Amino acid sequence: MAVLIPSLSTCTARIQPGERRLAERLQQKLDDDYLLWFDVPIGPKQCHPDFVVLHPRRGLLILETKDWHLGIIQKASPGDWLIAPDGVPKSVPNPVEQARYQALQVVDALKRDAQLIQHEGKCQGMLTFPWSYGVVFTRIKRKEFDDAGLGSAIESNRVVCADEMLEDAEPEAFQSRLWNMFPQMMRGALSLPQIDRVRWNLFPEVRVPDQGVLFDDADDKATIPDFLRVMDLQQEQLARSLGDGHRVIHGVAGSGKTMILGYRAEYLAKTARDLRKPVLVLCYNEPLAVKLQATMQAKALADRVHVRHFHKWCRDQLVAFGQPLPPNDLAVDAKMYQMVHNVIDGVDRKMIPSGQYLAVLVDEGHDFAPEWLKLVTQMVDPATNSLLLLYDDAQSIYSKRRGKPFSFKSVGVQAQGRTTILKINYRNTRQILQTASAMATELLRPQEKGDDGVPLVQPVSCGRDGPEPIVIDLPSTRAQADRIAELMASAHNEGHAWGDMAVLCRSKELMDECANALGRRRLPHKVRKGTHDFNPAADTIKVMTLHASKGLEFPVVAVIGARQAVAGLEVLAKEEDALEEMRLFYVGATRATSLLMIANAIRQ
Asked: Among the four 16, 48, 474, 575, which has the fewest Cβ within 10 Å?
C-alpha cells in the first residue's frame, strides 16, 4: 500500500467524493514504494496540485481531479472549457492545462537543485528523472469521454476515467493508465538521498534546520546545501495529519517532537478563520520557551502564536484578570506552587476565563504535574478542541511532580485512539545514543501503558555515526573543567562555531568552575543563571545546568557532574536518587548531536 500524506482520515473537511475515491485507489493499487501527497502546497509559489505521485523508478506525476459529470460540460477545447455545474455557464481552464501549469511549477522548483539536474549531454539542464501530468475524471466513463469528443481537447493517454479506477480494477492496469501519461519514459532512478532532496525543495515545512534555529525559515532564495535533512515520512505524515481534537505524541529524545509542534503551531496560526484567539505554546523549560518564541517572532507569527514558560503564563493570567499574586517573601518553590494554585482557583471561580486559545500545544508534557495539565486543557476553545501534548517520561527530571501514575483521561486529555509513538532518535549519533542509553538502562526499559497511560519508549538510532564520546577522568573538578575548555578550543579549530557548544553542569557551583576555565582560555561564553541570561543566537559557549538544557541541542556538549555519568565511580544510597541521576545524565547526553564529553567532576 502506498504512503498517503496527509492520512485520508484527516482530509474529511476538504476532500471531494471523487478525490476520496481516487485517494483510496492510489493507496490500494500502488506499491509500498510509492509516495502520495494530497492537496499539499508546493514550492516557492505554494501551488496546490490535487495529487503528487512520486516513485523512485517511475518519476514524478501531477494529477488534477475533476468531479464533473458529462452533462455539465457545454464546450471543450484545447484552451478554455465552458461548464455549467449549477446551470450558470462559466469559462474555466482546460483541466490538462491546469495540471501542466502545476507540474511546471514543481519542475522549476526542482531545477534549482544542482543535484537533481543533468549536467551534460542532450538532456543538460533537465531533471535526472521523468515527470509528467494528467487528469482524472471521477464521474465520466471512457466511452462517454470518447463519444463526446473530449479527446480533441485532451490527449486520451493523459486521462483516467471513472470506470478505469473502480475498486476491482487490476493494479497493473491501473498503474499502466498512470504511466501512459508520460510522453516518453526516461531512464534513471531516484536514490533515497535524491528523494529527500525532492521533498526538501517541494515542501519547505519538512526541512530539518541547521543548528541555531528550531524550524527552517523556508527561504526559497537561500542556497541549497550539499547535505540536507528532512522529516522522515512518519514525521511528515504525523505533522500533516494531526487533525482536530486532542492528540498525544510519545517520543524519545531527538525524535523531532518540538519540530512537529512548531509545524503545527504555524499551520494553525496561518489557517485559522477566527483571528481573535491566538495559539498558545507552553513549555516548562524557560530557555526552550525563549528559543521557540524567537522562532515565531522571526516568522512574524508572534501575535498569533504565544509561547510561554508555564509559570510566566500563570503570572500573566493573574495580572491580566486582577487575581492575587503570591507574596514576594515566599521561597521560590512555594511561590511557584502558589502561583499555579491561584490560577486554578481563579478558573474554578470563573474569574479567569477558560477557552481563551484557539489551540494549546504543550511541549515537555512529562514535566507538567497532573493538575497543570488539567488547567491547560480548560484553556482550549471548545469550538476547536485543539490540544497537542508532547511527552517523554524518560526525560521527566522534576521528581516532585511525577508523583503517582495518572491517566490522561483523569486530567481532561482525550487521548484514547489519538496517540502516536516516535521511537527513532535523529538528533544523536549512534555512539552518543548508545552511551546515553547504556547509562540509563533501567530508565529506558520499555513499558506498555495503553492509549491512556504514559509509556516508556526505547529509543532507536537512525544510524548516523560519529566519534566516540570522550570520558574525562581527571582527579579534580578544576582539572576536568580545564580539559573541557581545551577540548572546546580544539572543536572550534576544527570548524565548530562557539554557538555550537554547551557545557551542562549538575550544579551552579560547577557552572562557575567551568566558566572560570573557559575564561582562563579567553573562550567566548555565557553563563545562564537567570531568566534573562539565555540568547540562543549568540555565538558563545552556553554554560547552564542540566535541568535548563532540556529541549535544546548543540553539536558539541560537555556534561559535568552527573554523579553516575561514568559507571562505577559512585553508588547512590537511594534507588530514587540513582534514577534521578540517570534521567539528568540521559537528558544532558542527548543534547549533543555530534560530539559528547563526559566528566564526573569529583571535587578535590
From this structure: 575
